[in-house]
């Protein structure tokens, strides 16, 4: 089965108009939306305010925003909140509902780790669990940051949920092997619930679509479960991060990709997620539905007049349709957030509007 999940492909592919002709699955009661990654906007050299304002003109319902700790508190005593204030103001004025990720250590968007240097003098030891007893001052600072954010924004009508951490207890990609201890995350969840008992908490986790990744994830998180398992234990809304195709390594001029999206073995995990959601009154959502390339580098390539094999414009629709097929009458998906809106804006600047148009087609026909 593993060999069926491996593709050796030329990474750059000709753009086609296949996205114009694919059918669009109805969304039913599922809210559609995007995530807005401030660090990615900066990495692409885009204007943050103009980019957000343009995206907010599209008729989606939900946006996820992030409070990036080291941007808000770059030095002791600082609290630079104007940028996040502007984003929340703009989203509310556009009539969008908001999920706010209050972090604090891990927030969505590369590099996913945003602890200010003054709160962590030395890097976490690799192959370790970050326990509350080993980092009491960091936990105190993290919960204080959470509480300050929640207290500031809990009167905002547009905010419908808080997100705690990002893929909370998984290793930080391939770059680091340390992991947050579930007890550390549990203290953060307690802080949010105490500061605002009225709103639900969302936590997310990566759903492997290939067997090699699934086995690796199980081995690395076998002691306390992966982030989806922890979300099932702690959260009100469980967010699934779904990426159907991603690069593994370069082989000469070609790239080796993993693509297990069509394999039936992964259905067991999805069924378990839906069954638990029904049994415990939780909601399920797609926190990240792949809508930009995932290649061998951290910043998605932007080839002129071509697309990347890991996510062509038509794949934006294919991934959405796949997840809509998971919806069940007694356990519909609460929401589907497209991952890659900033990339679409970059592409449009380079005369390729097909990603944005594929998104617009979904909004129009879903």
Give the helix/strand layout:
Elements: E1 6-9, E2 12-14, E3 31-35, H1 38-43, H2 48-56, E4 62-66, H3 69-72, H4 82-93, E5 97-101, E6 129-130, H5 136-153, E7 159-163, E8 179-180, H6 182-195, E9 201-206, H7 211-221, H8 227-234, E10 237-242, E11 246-251, E12 254-258, H9 267-280, E13 283-290, E14 306-308, H10 313-324, E15 333-339, H11 341-349, H12 354-365
Parallel strand pairs: 3-4, 3-15, 4-5, 5-7, 6-8, 7-9, 9-10, 10-13, 13-15
Antiparallel strand pairs: 1-12, 2-14, 11-12
Helix pairs in contact: 2-4, 5-6, 10-12
Question: What's a quick, concise take on this entry?
Answer:
By secondary structure, the protein is α/β, with parallel strands linked by helices. It has helices spanning 38-43, 48-56, 69-72, 82-93, 136-153, 182-195, 211-221, 227-234, 267-280, 313-324, 341-349, 354-365; strands at residues 6-9, 12-14, 31-35, 62-66, 97-101, 129-130, 159-163, 179-180, 201-206, 237-242, 246-251, 254-258, 283-290, 306-308, 333-339.
The averaged pLDDT comes out at 94
CATH architecture: Alpha-Beta Barrel
Helix content: 25-40%
Number of helices: 12
What would the CATH topology be?
TIM Barrel
Distance between the termini: 34 Å
- What is the alpha-carbon Rg in Å? 20 Å
The topology string of helices and strands comes to: EEEHHEHHEEHEEHEHHEEEHEEHEHH
Percent in strands: 15-25%
How many separate structural domains? 1
Class by SSE composition: alpha/beta
